Amino acid sequence: MNFNIAIIDDNSIDTEYVAGLVKNWSETTDHTVHIQKFSSAEAFLFHYEDEEKYDVLLLDIEMGAMNGVELAQKIRQNDDTVQLVFITGFPDFMAEGYEVSALHYLMKPVNEEKLCAVLDKAVSNLNKREKRLCVTFDRQTVLIPLPQILYLEAQKQYVQIYTADTEYRMKGSLNSMEMQVDEYFFKCHRSFLVNLRHVMHIKSNCVVLKNSVEVPISRGMAEKIGKEIIRLF
Fold first, then answer.
1. 101 and 50 share a domain?
2. What is the structure's pLDDT at 128?
3. Widest distance between CA atoms in the chain
4. What gap in Å lies between CA 165 and CA 93, rounded to an integer?
5. Is 20 helix (H, G, I), strand (E, B) or coil?
6. Distance CA 199, CA 226 (A)
7. Same domain (yes/no): 123, 185
8. Which residues of 91-103 are buried (b: 16+ CB within 10 A; e: fewer)?
9. Which of 128, 145, 170 is the endpoint of a domain?
10. For residue 1, what pLDDT band results from cuts at 50, 70 and 90?
11. In Å, what is the CA distance from 89 to each residue of 60, 105, 146, 180?
């Protein structure tokens, strides 16, 4: 497969070192990678705004005016699928990484084996990103990419499907829908199936999504959801 990977780091020595590891990984896995290097978050954004498509971003955290976490927050406003990997000498940004659904943290100097494992996981996630849910309503059929779905709600003989800007109502059962989605969807309540990609906070009676919508969860479910998020992300 072909992958576009950006390395964003203001230290040129670190950049070249990581680029070499990525090239080694591509040769051993038979993946074709196109690597682009940027010395600042601002330089990357300049190219990104020209609609460049990236699959994986390897982000240094400590950079100039804009750090890696701030850059990731901007990217996440428009892109839910790009795989974000933070590379840092400071382990103090875990909470911020969780908020932008970072795939992993790698400490400097980067260990080649760990980087390869992270890239393998990124590929696995990217292979799932094109999976879509077939939704039929009002004599129409739409294919919704799974990452775009926030949650599903059972309403008698129908299922309501929520995305960031649209709602769909389809005849069927929540159980049948659960069989058609991927592992990121979690049955948090007998009437709700939530996409863990969009969960920001977990409360005792609900999960709060990144758009501030609250989805009910069953009693005792909060811990299970937390463990599942840790496993997936």
1. yes
2. 67
3. 60
4. 31
5. helix
6. 10
7. no
8. eebeebbeebbbb
9. 128
10. low
11. 9, 10, 34, 41
Token look-up 């501030």 returns 212
Asked if 196 contacts 179 with a C-beta cutoff of 8 angstroms, the reply is no
Is 107 found in the same domain as 7? yes
Distance between CA atoms of residues 97 and 72, nearest Å: 9
- Which amino acid is residue 123, in one-letter code? V
Domain enclosing residue 96, as ranges: 2-128
Please report, for residues 106, 184, 187, 218, the alpha-carbon distance to residue 227 in angstroms, rounded to integers and kept in the order given.
21, 12, 14, 15
Distance between CA atoms of 221 and 191, rounded to whole angstroms?
14
Contact 22, 33 (CB under 8 A): yes
Q: For residue 217, which of 206, 228, 226, 225 has the smallest C-alpha distance?
A: 206
* Predicted confidence (pLDDT) per residue in 52-91, tens digit: 678 999 999 888 888 888 999 888 887 878 999 999 877 6
**DSSP state at residue 205:** S
Nearest to 24 by CA among 111, 122, 88: 111
- Average pLDDT of 203-219? 96
Q: Which residue type does 216 have?
A: P
Query: Residue 139, exposed/middle/buried by CB under 10 A (0-12, 13-18, 19+)?
Result: exposed
